[in-house]
Amino acid sequence: MYRKEHIHMGKEEELAPGLFQSVIDHLREHHKAAIEKAYEYFWEENYPEDFLKGSALDIAFFNFEDWLIFDYKVNEEKETFIEVYIKEQKELAGDRVAILNKIKATVLSLFEVVSIGQDDEITLSDLLQGGTFTISHKTLAGSLEKGDLFATRLLPLDGKTVMSSCVYPFSRGNRNKVIELIDKEFIRYRKNENPQGRMRDFLKNYGEIFNFLWVHCIRERYPEEHKT
């Protein structure tokens, strides 16, 4: 759920990985049926094992868990599982509640690598909502290049921006195609559901669009390897 670095970590960064795992463990124990329903919806009633393999399959399960706790709407009140967890865990420590309340409204978005600087600092441009963000990530800095494209969730922890473990890597050649498809769905969202809605509102309600597009791009690139 969360990409943990071992240097220069603040208190919130230290707590976050274990906290996210506690949410997942709670859901598996108390909301199994809801997880199964969400799983079918996320994968459109398919099995990812049938068309993904290797590292792509590993990424897929991280992505599902991230979307499950942050974005999936559990009930008619449209609560997320983070909100449900806070309600059900009456004895949850205040610092844990504060972290969850701080990050529960975050959304998945599409980012492009603008630059990689000293001290493993990576500057990202949000292609859907605008703005640039700088994150420090030793592992990623060694594998990314300027112009790389991926969707992820950025978390505000300890006064800085931290990347979650959720990542949907796209090839550079799909940049305009992905943006155009998301813009098209955003226009449809404003027309049919929320005329005043912002891109942020759309992404919070339909974050699963990144999974659909990611799988579609994989199948399109390797059609013979990903037949169902």
What does this structure look like?
The protein has 228 residues and is an alpha+beta fold. It has one domain. The chain has a 5-stranded antiparallel beta sheet with strand order 3-2-1-4-5.
List keywords for this structure.
228 residues, alpha+beta, single chain, globular, 5 strands, five-stranded antiparallel sheet
Describe the secondary-structure layout:
Blueprint: H1 11-30, H2 32-42, H3 54-70, H4 81-88, H5 94-103, E1 108-116, E2 121-126, E3 132-136, H6 138-141, E4 149-157, E5 160-170, H7 175-192, H8 199-205, H9 209-221
Antiparallel strand pairs: 1-2, 1-4, 2-3, 4-5
Produce a short descriptive summary.
Helices cover 47% and strands 18% of the residues. The protein is an alpha+beta fold.
Number of helices: 9
- Overall geometry comes to globular
> Roughly what fraction of the amino acids lie in strands?
15-25%
Number of domains: 1
Helix content: 40-55%
